[in-house]
Amino acid sequence: MEIIKLREDYIKLGQALKAAGLVQSGVDAKYAIEDGLVTVNGETAFQRGKKLVDGDVVSYDGQTIKITK
């Protein structure tokens, strides 16, 4: 499980996928999200700009990211 520590109050979903190294670019993140391949807290996410806050868990391609403060 990858841990992303927040520097501000939130991080956007696309940025989190890039920061964790799960996608190579914002375009890759966009397509993965649009294709319904990414879940946030167990629910499919379709917004690349979705704000993730402390405690959120993102899953993509068998990998998990936890957002912490």
TrEMBL record:
It comes from Enterocloster hominis (ex Hitch et al. 2024). Keywords: RNA-binding. It holds the Pfam family S4_2. This is RNA-binding S4 domain-containing protein. InterPro entries: S4_RNA-bd_sf. CDD domains: S4. Gene3D superfamilies: RNA-binding S4 domain (3.10.290.10).
